[in-house]
Amino acid sequence: MSKAKVMEWVQKYTMILALILVVAFFAVQTGGKILYPQNITNLIAQNGYVFILSVGMLFCILTGGNIDLAVGSVVCFVGAVGATLMVGGMNVVLAVIVMLLIGTVIGAWQGFWIAYVRIPAFIVTLAGMLVFRGLSNVVLGGMTLSINKFETFIMVFGGGASCYFPDLIGGGPTVLVNGSEVVLNMFSIVVGIVLIVGYLGFAACSYISNSKKGYANAPIAAVAGKAIIVVGVIGYFFWKFAQYKGVPTVLAWIGAIVVIYTFISSKTTLGRHFYAVGGNEKATKLSGINTDRIYFIGYTNMGLLCALAGMLTIARMVSAQPTYGDGYELDAIGACYIGGASAYGGVGTVPGVIIGALLMGVINLGMSIMGVDANYQKVVKGLVLLAAVVFDVVSKRKKA
């Protein structure tokens, strides 16, 4: 393989290599504790909101580097309203529908000013951040509201002791984990195998279909290497889940969002329009595409995902508080840029964003296990974000 090919490969998979190095670093520094089954599960459960919000944030960034500063406040407001309605006696299913509608309406309201009045997204969402944080305090009266009696809601959206899928198979063998005997959760093993087989089947079908249609395929070595990495990651995570309490329920929501939005971004006309607007909005508009509509859809969708993140948050915490969602927007933005989204728009993928969110989660978890002061954790996260954006800008200059 030529030097140019090697450099291209390294640049394409920089974040994956960085993730591997960061995991290895913290594995050494924590004496392997970061790889304990409980910590692997916590990595997913505690960062569920980051995965969800970063996918929505990606579509905002694709339109030209625009961001949504209001997501943390909207998460808090939607959670506050939902908790208040449920505690007030509203049916849980109806409360969930109301929360989703509120989030969508908020996203549409912000999208209207951004798309059709052309007020900068930074200003609109900054105003939204202040408005909905204030309304959250009004709804909750500045107090914490407990929802621990709503077991169905908590179980479905992931919180407390019931945030894992039950072992529907049972009867697993006993293995030694960190010096203790543990019965393997066979449901986790089966789900992992199903996902691996499904991925391999999809990858094979895509390769064959592209060949038949005459489309260019990546070299077979690259395809095989990618498959090995994906299969290894899936197998590793579900093996760790099996050694703890099983598959976290929040993973189902994350998986659904990743699959749906990966399909939208890569296989639909609407997805291509987002990339086109970010690449060159004027040319896109002249080609007959309604660019205002793309902006509006992007921010409306962000509001919908904020509602889902709000439900995940109050379910995990089993309460609603005026401080929930604080800093969520920064985590989502950071995950996007670290995951390869361009600061100028038009570049970025859902899988890349998920890798960025994982990297952020590993850094948070690793430093927490090491006992690093919270203030220094913010310093590290800020430097990692700056490094990701610098890398994006410098690499674009070299290509130019």
Write the layout of secondary structure elements.
Elements: H1 3-12, H2 14-29, H3 37-46, H4 48-62, H5 71-87, H6 92-115, H7 121-140, E1 145-146, H8 151-157, E2 174-177, E3 180-183, H9 186-213, H10 220-242, H11 249-267, H12 269-279, H13 281-286, H14 291-317, E4 319-320, H15 328-338, H16 350-370, H17 374-399
Antiparallel strand pairs: 1-4, 2-3
Describe this structure in words.
With about 400 residues, the chain is mainly alpha-helical. The protein folds into 2 domains: about 5-165 and about 250-400, ABC transporter involved in vitamin B12 uptake, BtuC; about 165-245, no CATH class. Helices cover about 75% and strands about 5% of the residues. The chain has 17 helices and 4 strands. The protein has helices spanning about 5-10, 15-30, 35-45, 50-60, 70-85, 90-115, 120-140, 150-155, 185-215, 220-240, 250-265, 270-280, 280-285, 290-315, 330-340, 350-370, 375-400, and strands spanning about 145, 175, 180-185, 320. A two-stranded antiparallel sheet has the order 1-4. Strands 2-3 form a two-stranded antiparallel ribbon. A hairpin with a 2-residue loop joins β2 and β3. It is globular, with a radius of gyration of 22 Å. The two termini are about 25 Å apart.
